[in-house]
């Protein structure tokens, strides 16, 4: 016969086990969420590798493939709102090291991206992100961004258009990496990159940004690990909205944009 004390201990043990199970479930959920956040913008921009956050279907027999196909979301197909790209091809040149610092941290700089979908105007923050702005001024003068595709659009959870890869795959870069800057920007409140922010993509590790950047068209929850280096103007936001409204190709909220977004010409100058 079970005594009252034994019964009390048994109930206490069962309660403890239930608590442990709930805590472990919460930890698993948090780990999954953090993994998504950490990789959703992670791009290896040197060395030819990539940490592109896309889903992968498991291989196997015909039944597995059929089941996986049934589970795939239906791609969202919208009309292409953009014009044909200007003639030309992306540059193939790379460099072994970051360009020598020449940016004036006390001056104002503006970047103009003439894309097939419209102009994206950006006010750059040389005072708080001098290495990044200096690199963009250098690359723009070299024509590095000209004729490059904006290869990625996210439409769920985070809301960004990603550009700056001459390969158009998420694997390209200038050959060098940049230090992280401005990660304590007061605008990044509550781990939110506000709409209108332009920031650097990276591998999720410190000091791994290269040339790839993302344009935030709607407030996006992200850890402050991606250098914010400017603010998109009103005309640029209109262009981004047009691109976002056309959707992306996978239907899963993360893929190539339906809009043919190509940067015909990029310029950076003192304003």
How are the SSEs placed, and which strands pair?
Layout: H1 4-39, H2 62-71, E1 109-115, E2 118-124, H3 130-141, E3 148-149, E4 152-154, E5 160-163, E6 192-193, E7 197-200, E8 213-216, E9 220-221, E10 228-232, H4 234-245, E11 254-255, E12 262-270
Antiparallel strand pairs: 1-2, 1-12, 2-10, 3-12, 4-5, 4-11, 5-8, 6-9, 7-8, 7-10
Organism: Streptomyces triculaminicus
Region (Disordered): 1-31, 56-99
Protein name: Peptidylprolyl isomerase
Overview of the structural elements:
The model is unreliable at 34-40 and 43-71 (pLDDT under 50). The protein is of the alpha+beta class and 271 residues long. The protein has a 10-stranded antiparallel sheet with strand order 3-12-1-2-10-7-8-5-4-11. The chain has a two-stranded antiparallel ribbon with strand order 6-9. It is elongated, with a radius of gyration of 23 Å. 26% of the residues lie in helices and 19% in strands. The chain has 4 helices and 12 strands; from the N terminus they run ααββαββββββββαββ. The longest helix is centred in the N-terminal third of the chain and has 36 residues, at 4-39. The protein has one domain: Cyclophilin (Beta Barrel). β4 (152-154) and β5 form a beta hairpin. It has helices at residues 4-39, 62-71, 130-141, 234-245; strands at 109-115, 118-124, 148-149, 152-154, 160-163, 192-193, 197-200, 213-216, 220-221, 228-232, 254-255, 262-270.
